[in-house]
UniProtKB/TrEMBL annotation:
Residues 157-185 are annotated as: Disordered. Residues 67-174 form the Nucleoporin NSP1-like C-terminal domain. GO terms for molecular function: phospholipid binding; structural constituent of nuclear pore. Keywords: Protein transport, Transport. Residues 170-179 have a biased composition (Basic and acidic residues). It comes from Balaenoptera musculus (Blue whale). The keyword Protein transport applies. Signal peptide: none annotated. Belongs to the nucleoporin NSP1/NUP62 family. One of its GO terms (cellular component) is nuclear pore central transport channel. This is Nucleoporin NSP1-like C-terminal domain-containing protein. GO terms for biological process: protein import into nucleus; RNA export from nucleus.
């Protein structure tokens, strides 16, 4: 079978008066491995010369490509390439699925750890409230102990004024009991 395509293109630009004519003839034979392509380009610039020296710039540029040989692929080669690409695609798919499953596992771990952090934060807030309450109770107990010490000091002074040795012993015993009670709190 012989396929022949012929295209003829012509372009013209008014500003620079550029004219171009391109002709391409491509001949392809299915039973052989060669393709012939001929390209002829012609450009003519009609520009006014800068000086009157009589220079003529109307020479056309011509380029010809004689023959381009394109390899023809057999069905076996095409089938081999498709199989190779299919195997590579399967390998890439396995790699992608493995990475996606790892990412899902990491995401699950991050979500679990986030929930644990939220729970710990709640527990820390409860402990802070409990600590604040204990500090207030401790301040209250310390203020009561200070008041008791002040009262005890006043009562000791009054007993000294009475100069009774029996009273001093009794006061010392009371002081020790009060001190031991306050130390327990």
């Amino acid at each position: 079978m012989l396929f022949t395509s012929f295209s003829n293109a012509s372009a013209s630009t008014a500003a620079t008066r550029l004219s171009s004519t391109t002709s391409t003839i491509t001949t392809t034979t299915v039973t052989t491995t060669s393709t012939s392509t001929s390209t002829t380009s012609s450009f003519a610039l009609d520009l006014k010369p800068l000086t009157s020296t009589g220079m003529n710039n109307s020479r056309p540029f011509t380029s010809t490509i004689n023959e381009i040989i394109t390899p023809v692929m057999t069905y076996g080669q095409l089938d081999g390439l498709i199989n190779k690409w299919s195997l590579e695609l399967e390998d890439q798919e396995k790699c992608f699925l493995h990475q996606a499953s790892q990412l899902n596992a990491w995401d699950y771990t991050c979500i679990e750890n986030g929930e644990k952090i939220i729970a710990l934060h709640g527990e820390v807030q409860k402990v802070k409230l409990y600590q604040k309450r204990l500090e207030q109770e401790l301040d209250f107990i310390l203020s009561q102990q200070k008041e008791l010490e002040d009262l005890l000091t006043l009562s000791e002074e009054s007993v000294k004024d009475q100069s009774g040795s029996v009273y001093l012993q009794h006061t010392d015993e009371e002081r020790e009991k009060t001190s031991s009670r306050s130390a327990k709190f």
